[in-house]
Structure of DYW domain-containing protein:
Amino acid sequence: MRSAAAAAAPVAATDPQLLAAAVEAAIASRSPRLGRAAHARAIRLLAPAIPPFIRAHLVNLYSKLDLPGPAAAALASDPSPTVVSYTAFISGAAKHGRPAPALSAFAAMLRLGLRPNDFTFPSAFKAAAIAPPSSAIGPQVHSLALRFGYLPDDAFVSCAALDMYFKTGRLALARRLFEEMPNRNVVAWNAVMTNALLDGRPLETVEAYFGLREAGGMPNVVSVCAFFNACAGATYLSLGEQFHGFVVKCGLERDVSVSNSMVDFYGKCRCVGKAKVVFDGMGVRNSVSWCCMVVAYAQNGGEEEAFSVYLRARRAGEEPTDFMVSSVLTTCAGLLGLDLGRALHAVAVRSCIDANIFVASALVDMYGKCGGIEDAEQVFFEMPQRNLVTWNAMVGGYAHIGDARNALAVFDDMIKCGETAPNYITLVNVLAACSRGGLTKEGYELFKTMNDRFGIKPQIEHYACVVDLLGRAGMEEQAYEIIQGMPMRPSISVWGALLGACKMHGKTELGKIAAEKLFELDPQDSGNHVLLSNMFASAGRWAEATDVRKEMKNVGIKKEPGRSWITWKNVVHVFQAKDTKHEMNNEIQALLAKLKSQLQAAGYMPDTQYALYDLEEEEKESEVFQHSEKLALAFGLICIPPGVPIRIMKNLRICVDCHRAFKFISGIVGREIIVRDNNRFHHFKSYKCSCKDYW
DNA sequence: CTAGGGTTAG
């Protein structure tokens, strides 16, 4: 901020030194506006005789601020450009990911007979490293550097060449250059370490580090970051912990980037506590530090903590960056916090980062997961560019609400557009959409042809989807055959899908088989036991239902209590079945009684098949009328004004009777009701649900 | 006045 103020201060004299200082300040402020002002001042005060070094300053100014047009104009308007102006231009263009202008400027200076120096070559290599790898530009720059005598002796030039060979995928050439380097410094080792990381070979990063140490070298900040990064990627927890000790001894942990990479490392190794210790101990933090801490919580099930770290960052004066907003949005998706997500969308718009592809994709994902499909569509259709993750998020959004038609349509668009090939996640989402939307034939066809059409072999998740798909449609036996023909061991989700289907269609015997497999794979899970017990109960096989319950008790498995919650005026109201503790219990009970008679008048019959024990019908009826989701709905109907959709969350699947009742209630009282359970969304409107009773 | 290797996200 100080530098911005300096740049804004008027330059009174035509003193070139003062002007140069103003240009430096404009660069530091990273503000194109101040940069243009500095340029205008230079032209006004010094034209027509601008000293050569000021011209180089101006080229540098525009290049550093990433204003390619003005930078090129400033260079072109210079009657006698120097190596320095050209190098500044090349450097800026390379830094901002514009290899083409950088390399053509390099060619232009050669044509003018200007001799590239030891500053020029590193920037030229940097540009060559990000040029299309098919072009042979990198080796050409290499031979020039040889001819001008900067290779192999100049350390800066050779390190830049090394990095270029790695980044353009010429591994053999890179390794040979590395072997032949006479001055193999830390930066050379770092280039090996970081490029191994980029190519997904963390073990090689660690090995290169030990190579550096054996050669008697000392790691610097970059080496340390790369090492932690490798440990994070490969979850080498104890190696990273040992390294942490060493880093502290060297005093390198005082560097912000090093500490950031430690926070990230501990987070990725599922040690949020240790991440927090590092974060709390940091004397200086930057926006990346806050972001690493948010991500550490978010990726370890600490959505609330992640969000509160974000709020702390904002209070500490951090601007919301694209990194931060996209990270926090995933926590909103996890919390199902549509309101929080909307608020973040507004933040993104205000900070002009809502079109960033990461942010926009995160928005599509968040809206899709939080039940705001129209908002997801709007973001999706308005974004300037899309990539694989964006498409997957949109298809996934449709899958969540079971809109198979639109999921298939978007998938079709993706294929037709031809820029992005689908991956296995895309196909999981499409199959899941078909399954939930009841497009059995289309889904099954896609499953059978996905390898031929897209070169994606069905993996375990695809099998789980297709078992679900067939199972929901009442083809449990066919699903079972597919399971038996699987080339890999069926997972929990595969057997779970079969069990769910058997429960849905009362295929008790096959369900028993699936349940037993599940008990083997995950003996502590309560959900499967409950499902099997309920299945016996609905078949009237009460003795077996009770046996399963007893077994659960013996093994010490507790059923997770069903909970539903609803947010009203920023307060979360949580309900459990038969809950009477809520402050508005009397009003809730009164409304439920009234609804019950309205429902019966409308032709609703309670579905008591899943009431847990062998009770008399009437008792079962009152039992299902105290389910947590019904209590939450009654509360919502009392508090939330007409016209506003009522959004309810549940930690387990919505119960069959509640589902039936909600359809009636949505029609009787003319309200939109949206239930998000642990499986999917249900949109109730005018006696119907978006799932078409197929879930 | 110009230079190499770097931390965070969907």
